[in-house]
């Protein structure tokens, strides 16, 4: 495996100035000069038109100074004049309350389209100040809306962020230093000039000796997906196996999906945020609407690669699972249904255990149940392994367990004759070859949407029993006498637990009814309040109210004086 070299972190040479005209988005007055003042001076010399929009009023720097907004705008006008900026605009959004509202996105989008900018600059999304990061998203979504008619480029203000362009500002650094001094109101809170100069000097690290100072930028690809997805893609490359090699085996995560895009998005994000660094994602779409673009957007972070297969017609859960197994390359495998979720440490916890215990082919852990809104339910799966108990009922959710590919080599596969409970059957197959290891604790969520006819809250006992029949017919004839006796004992012990589940299910139903009634009561009261307010407003605006006003005033006068 070839490691990525230094150029993936720091460009070895300086870049040319991006094409103009430029629009520079500054969250506060001074960001434009501190972040890219040297490059703006070079643009002036190259006759590139530059406009600046200051998005906030900058008053949060000192709320006791009522004149601060005016002071900072005067300083900005002076600095922009010396930088040679053509137009300086102040949108005066409230400092530290900037938001990614559609109104601001549309306003910025219209402004960029009207003035036909070639390059739009915005602060790096890695900046610590929230207004800086929000400005980055505002810029990105505005350009997305325009199908990227302008080139998106981020600049640094307070720290070293991802960079792929370094501009040599050695010739204008003394001039930039003088212009930074225009922002007198800010100099009492930080040694800005010295620290910005230090940042610019450090940016010359990878450049020739002739370069004393540089400003860093990141030219983003014009991809129609969220900025945070692109940011994670850049970060994952710099922290991937190609950057920090190790001997961790590849884990294939197989997701079956069909027409639940928002659940699928959440499921993939729970994979992308795993702490385990070597993951392959397999998505099998079983005859649903094509979600390739969604998968491309979300397959980031520690997902090193992904495969997407679109089945033209619905083939069923079992066939889709086998399709995923066929596509997978991982030494270790795990399923994740599109409505379920991993917690960040889930795969690492399972993989580190199975790596340390190679004689074990399946490791699993506890799973907490949640409802469709991700509220925690009083139901969970957490039971030590017992092969005979597994025959009587499944207590291992499919995404709670990580298993070795060697089980497939031994003949284990998803039985496509089963429409449901195919995971239960697979665990029974695996139990014939290996013991399972249970890890205490919870690191995954099982989402109970109430749509499954054989799920944990299903009230149709007949259907659940009918669904179990094919498994019992398949496995009971293969059991030894001792296994049959153990099975009978497990069934007897399961009855109290089944009753407990029924009680918990009833409690949940009752709570849902109470919540529904409360919501209806609140809605009814809100309507009555609204009607009363309308009535009062009509009364206050009525002619009779205005005519009788002198009488009410006279009555109030007598009451006050007589008392």
Briefly say what this structure is.
By secondary structure, this protein is α/β, with parallel strands linked by helices.
Cα gyration radius (Å): 32 Å
**Mean pLDDT score, rounded?**
89
Distance linking N and C termini: 95 Å
List unreliable stretches of 5+ residues.
Answer: none
Written description of the protein model:
The chain has 563 residues and is α/β, with parallel strands linked by helices. It is built from 18 helices and 16 strands. The strands form two sheets. Strands 8, 9, 10, 11, 12, 13, 14, 15 and 16 form a nine-stranded mixed beta sheet that branches. A seven-stranded mixed beta sheet has the order 3-2-1-4-5-7-6, with helices on both faces. Helix 4 links the parallel strand 4 and strand 5. The longest helix is centred in the C-terminal third of the chain and has 60 residues. The mean pLDDT is 89.
Topology:
Layout: E1 22-26, H1 31-45, E2 50-56, H2 68-83, E3 87-93, H3 102-115, E4 119-123, H4 130-145, E5 151-155, E6 165-168, H5 173-180, H6 192-202, E7 214-219, H7 227-238, E8 251-257, H8 261-272, E9 279-286, H9 292-298, E10 303-311, H10 317-327, E11 332-335, E12 341-342, H11 346-356, E13 362-371, E14 376-381, H12 387-392, E15 401-404, H13 406-409, H14 422-431, E16 436-448, H15 461-475, H16 481-540, H17 543-547, H18 549-562
Parallel strand pairs: 1-2, 1-4, 2-3, 4-5, 8-9, 8-11, 9-10, 13-16
Antiparallel strand pairs: 5-7, 6-7, 11-15, 12-16, 13-14, 13-15
Helix pairs in contact: 1-5, 3-4
């Amino acid at each position: 495996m070839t490691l990525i070299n230094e150029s993936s972190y720091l460009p070895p040479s300086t870049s040319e100035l991006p094409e103009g005209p430029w629009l520079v988005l500054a969250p506060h007055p001074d960001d434009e000069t501190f972040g890219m003042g040297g490059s703006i001076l070079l643009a002036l010399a190259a006759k590139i038109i530059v406009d600046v929009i200051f998005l906030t009023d900058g008053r949060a720097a000192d709320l006791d100074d009522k004149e601060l907004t005016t002071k900072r705008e005067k300083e900005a006008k002076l600095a922009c004049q010396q930088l040679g900026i053509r137009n300086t605009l102040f949108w005066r959004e409230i400092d530290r309350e900037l938001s990614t509202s559609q109104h601001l996105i549309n306003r910025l989008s219209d402004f960029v389209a009207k003035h036909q900018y070639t390059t739009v600059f915005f602060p790096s999304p890695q900046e610590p100040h929230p207004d800086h990061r929000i400005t980055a998203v505002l810029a990105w979504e505005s350009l997305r809306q325009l199908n990227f008619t302008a080139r998106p480029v981020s600049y640094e203000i307070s720290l070293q962020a991802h960079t792929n362009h370094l501009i040599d500002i050695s010739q204008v650094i003394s001039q930039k230093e003088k212009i930074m001094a225009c922002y007198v109101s800010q100099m009492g809170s930080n040694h800005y000039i010295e620290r910005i100069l230090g940042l610019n000097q450090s940016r010359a690290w990878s450049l020739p000796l002739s370069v004393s100072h540089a400003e860093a930028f990141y030219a983003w690809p014009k991809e129609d997906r969220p900025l945070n997805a692109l940011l994670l893609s850049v970060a994952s490359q710099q922290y991937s196996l190609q950057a920090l090699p190790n001997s961790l085996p590849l884990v294939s995560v197989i997701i079956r999906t069909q027409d639940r895009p928002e659940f699928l998005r959440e499921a993939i994000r729970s994979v992308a945020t795993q702490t385990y660094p070597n993951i392959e994602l397999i998505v099998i779409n079983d005859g649903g609407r094509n979600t390739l673009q969604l998968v491309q957007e979300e397959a980031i972070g520690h997902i090193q690669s992904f495969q997407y297969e679109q089945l033209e017609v619905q083939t069923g859960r079992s066939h889709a699972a086998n399709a995923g197994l066929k596509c997978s390359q991982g030494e270790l495998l795990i399923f994740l249904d599109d409505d379920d979720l991993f917690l960040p440490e889930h795969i690492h916890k399972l993989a580190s255990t199975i790596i340390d215990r190679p004689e074990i082919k399946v490791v699993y852990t506890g799973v907490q149940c949640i409802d469709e809104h991700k509220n925690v339910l009083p139901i969970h799966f957490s039971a030590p392994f017992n092969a005979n108990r597994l025959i009587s009922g499944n207590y291992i959710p499919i995404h709670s367990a990580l298993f070795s590919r060697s089980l497939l080599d031994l003949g284990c596969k998803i039985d496509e004759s089963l429409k449901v409970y195919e995971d239960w059957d697979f665990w029974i197959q695996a139990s014939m070859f290996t013991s399972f290891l249970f890890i205490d604790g919870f690191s995954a969520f099982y989402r109970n949407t109430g749509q499954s006819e054989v799920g944990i809250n299903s009230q149709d006992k007949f259907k659940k029993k009918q669904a179990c029949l094919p498994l019992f017919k398949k496995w009971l004839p293969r059991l030894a006498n001792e296994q049959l006796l153990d099975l009978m004992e497990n069934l007897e012990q399961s009855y109290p637990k089944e009753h407990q589940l029924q009680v918990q299910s009833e409690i949940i139903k009752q709570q849902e009814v109470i919540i529904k009634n409360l919501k209806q009561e609140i809605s009814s009261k809100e309507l009555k309040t609204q009607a009363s307010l309308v009535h009062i407003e009509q009364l206050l605006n009525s002619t009779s109210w205005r005519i009788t006003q002198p009488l009410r005033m006279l009555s109030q006068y007598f009451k006050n004086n007589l008392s």
